[in-house]
Amino acid sequence: MDALTRERTLIGSDDTGLDLEPAQRPTRDEAMAAVRTLLAWAGDNPDREGLLDTPQRVVDAYGEWFAGYHGDPAKELSRTFEDVQGYDDMVMLRGIDVQSHCEHHMAPFLGKAWVAYMPTGKVVGLSKLARLVEIFAKRLQTQETMTMQVADAIEDHLSAAGVAVLIDAEHQCMSTRGVHHHDVSTITTQFRGVFKTDKVLQQRFMDLVRK
């Protein structure tokens, strides 16, 4: 199963695992009308001065927060460099910002990602790895799914000998509602290839995460 198939299964499926057809995208005016409805439902008056421009601002913000639906992970990882003088050790990016929204409450979860891979004759530009994380983060997500998607994309498109991904984030659906537990972070990991089979290499990755 390729990365695109996995992505459809993980993001665009119902509880039966069957792929769903993409929803028809509403117009901008329809989206702003929906915001007005939510403002009224919350108990405020959408026509009061302070809220007149709120629907427009919310729609603009959603366009930025969920821009990842228009990103292409394969395209980001398509340009690679083979002139690396035989380099065959870990390539790692530490502390990549993660700004995402949970798919259950549409509440933000914020944190950091650490991403590493073992190249097999070619490497990708470092900014592309950060962009890859951003593409998947700027969608409605679960942290577990996003961690797997980042690992899948690198494994599939770079033919890496191994991939390691760790995400550490705080979920506002837990800190600002529900149980109201603050300063609790969630850590998810994925180890593929040599990072899964070589415990020494896996420990090197974890040591660099903690550094």
UniProtKB/TrEMBL annotation:
Keyword terms of this UniProt record: GTP-binding, Hydrolase, Metal-binding, Nucleotide-binding, One-carbon metabolism, Zinc
GO CC annotations, alphabetized: cytoplasm
Gene Ontology terms, MF aspect: GTP binding; GTP cyclohydrolase I activity; zinc ion binding
Residue ranges of every copy of the GTP cyclohydrolase I domain listed in the record: 33-209
Sites where the protein binds Zn(2+): C102, H105, C173
PROSITE patterns with a match to the protein in the record: GTP_CYCLOHYDROL_1_1
Pathway stated in the Swiss-Prot or TrEMBL entry: Cofactor biosynthesis; 7,8-dihydroneopterin triphosphate biosynthesis; 7,8-dihydroneopterin triphosphate from GTP: step 1/1
EC number: 3.5.4.16
Catalytic activity: GTP + H2O = 7,8-dihydroneopterin 3'-triphosphate + formate + H(+)
PANTHER family: GTP CYCLOHYDROLASE 1 (PTHR11109:SF7), GTP CYCLOHYDROLASE I (PTHR11109)
HAMAP family, per the entry: FolE
Family the entry assigns: Belongs to the GTP cyclohydrolase I family.
Subunit-structure text: Toroid-shaped homodecamer, composed of two pentamers of five dimers.
Name of this protein: GTP cyclohydrolase 1
Upper classification of the organism: Bacteria, Pseudomonadati, Pseudomonadota, Alphaproteobacteria, Caulobacterales
Gene it is expressed from: folE
